[in-house]
Specification:
By secondary structure, this protein is an alpha+beta fold. It contains 4 helices and 5 strands. Strands 1-2-3 form a 3-stranded antiparallel β-sheet, with no helix packed on it.
Length: 122
């Protein structure tokens, strides 16, 4: 357990049950500045994460995202952001598009294949 008061830190060792006081001197001011900078950075990262979650629909289930865009015929930036994880363009002008939900789409295709086979009596 660590406790900071003024210009010293008290460290309690649970194993030895000893309390050690360490005087910090003038380094306390620099530590406080560093602590404030770290707090600001954490807040900035939390804001960035929140925006990322919103922009990339991380709090939505893939079913709700698919439903949201079902029937859309024009590719928009929002649709690309929701479904496309990576686009590679090769020198020979071929493209590779990786989707966030490839594994789930594969499952849907296999389920559709099974249902089609059941309907056709296979």
């Amino acid at each position: 357990m660590v406790k900071r008061e003024g210009g010293s830190i008290s460290i309690y060792n649970l194993e030895t049950k000893e309390l050690n006081n360490i005087e910090l001197g003038h380094d306390v001011e620099q530590m406080t500045i560093n602590e404030n900078v770290i707090d600001i950075q954490i807040t900035e990262y939390e804001n960035h994460i929140s925006k990322y979650r919103k922009d990339f629909h991380l709090d939505e289930s893939w079913e709700s995202i698919i439903s949201k865009f079902q029937g859309k015929r024009i590719l928009t930036r929002e649709i690309v952001d929701a479904f496309v994880s990576e686009i590679k363009i090769y020198p020979d002008k071929n493209m590779e598009v990786k989707l966030y939900y490839d594994d789930m789409l594969d499952q849907l295709v296999s389920i559709a294949d099974v249902r089609e086979a059941e309907c056709n009596g296979r």
